[in-house]
Automatic annotation (TrEMBL):
SUPFAM superfamilies: alpha/beta-Hydrolases
Native source organism of the sequence: Nonomuraea thailandensis
One Pfam family cited in the UniProt record for this chain: Thioesterase
Domain Thioesterase, first and last residues per copy: 17-236
The protein, known as: Thioesterase domain-containing protein
C-alpha cells in the first residue's frame, strides 16, 4: 500500500488535475473509485504525513501546497476533500489564494467547518477504537459495532493479519488521525474567494449543523446538493455512481478533462 504524501491515481491524460485530500484516516485510496468518472483528467490524492506528523493545520497546508506545486507549479488548481479532508482542502485552497494562485474548483463532501475549539476527548481509548474502525473500513474491512474485540489494539492486530500491513504502520495511522483531527478542530477557517460545491450525505442527522455553516467562510456561491447515503458510504460504488457524474460535470464547466 502506497502511503506517500502524494498518491497519484492517474498521471496521464489532459486537463487540470484534481487533487483530493484524505479523510480522517489519512489515506487517499478511497478516491480511486472516482477514476472512471473523470474522463482523461489526472487525479492525485494527498495523504497524511506520518513521520514526523505535521504539528498543526498551517503545517499540514504548507506541506500539501508544496507537494501540489511539485506536480503543477502554477494554477489553476482543482481541490476536493471528504469529511475532515474537506476542511483541509478549504484551508489549502485559501493558502493557494494567499500565494496568488487561481483555484478554479473546490468541492466539499459532507464536510463541516471547525469552530476553532478542540474539546479534550472524554475517552481517549474510545477515540482510538473509533479511528481504528475507520481505517479498517477504508481498507475494506468491516468490524461490526458489537465486535467482541472491542479495543483499538485488537482491531488493528486483526486488520494487520487480514490486510498484510504491519501493526506499527496501522498504529501510526491511528495516532496521525488523532493529530489531524485536533489540528483541524483547533483552527478557524479562512475565507475562500470563489464558488464551492458541497455534497451532503442525506441519511445523516446533525441537528443544527448544516453545510450552510460554510457560507461565512466563502466569498462566492455555496451550491449544496444532497446524496442519498450515509457519510461513511460516500466513496462506495452506489453513492459514487451519483457523486462521480456530478463532479465530472462541475469540473468540465471549469476546464477540459
Amino acid at each position: 500500500m502506497n502511503t506517500d504524501v502524494l498518491l497519484p491515481l492517474r498521471t496521464t491524460g489532459s486537463g487540470v488535475p484534481l487533487f483530493c485530500v484524505h479523510p480522517l484516516s489519512g489515506l487517499g485510496w478511497c478516491y480511486a473509485g472516482l477514476v472512471p468518472y473523470l474522463g482523461r483528467r489526472p487525479l492525485y490524492c494527498l495523504q497524511a504525513r506520518r513521520r514526523p506528523p505535521a504539528p498543526d493545520l498551517p503545517a499540514i497546508v504548507a506541506g500539501y501546497i508544496a507537494r501540489i506545486r511539485e506536480v503543477r507549479p502554477a494554477g489553476p488548481y482543482q481541490l476536493m476533500g471528504w469529511s475532515a479532508g474537506g476542511s483541509i482542502a478549504h484551508a489549502v485552497a485559501c493558502g493557494l489564494q494567499r500565494e496568488g494562485a487561481d483555484v478554479g474548483f473546490l468541492g466539499l463532501l459532507d464536510s463541516f467547518p471547525s469552530t476553532g475549539r478542540d474539546p479534550h476527548p472524554v475517552d481517549p481509548e474510545r477515540d482510538r477504537l473509533d479511528l481504528a474502525r475507520t481505517i479498517a473500513s477504508d481498507l475494506g474491512a468491516h468490524p461490526g459495532p458489537d465486535d467482541p474485540e472491542g479495543d483499538a489494539a485488537s482491531v488493528l492486530r486483526r486488520l494487520a493479519r487480514d490486510s498484510g500491513l504491519g501493526e506499527r504502520l496501522l498504529t501510526e495511522l491511528v495516532e496521525t488521525a488523532l493529530g489531524t483531527r485536533a489540528a483541524v478542530r483547533s483552527a478557524l477557517p479562512g475565507t475562500f474567494r470563489g464558488d464551492v460545491l458541497h455534497l451532503e450525505a442525506a441519511r445523516e442527522s446533525r441537528g443544527t449543523l448544516t453545510p450552510r455553516a460554510w457560507a461565512r467562510h466563502i466569498d462566492g456561491r455555496l451550491d449544496v446538493r444532497r446524496v442519498d447515503c450515509r457519510h461513511v458510504d460516500m466513496m462506495r460504488p452506489g453513492p459514487l455512481s451519483v457523486i462521480g457524474p456530478i463532479l465530472a460535470a462541475e469540473l468540465a464547466c471549469r476546464g477540459p478533462g
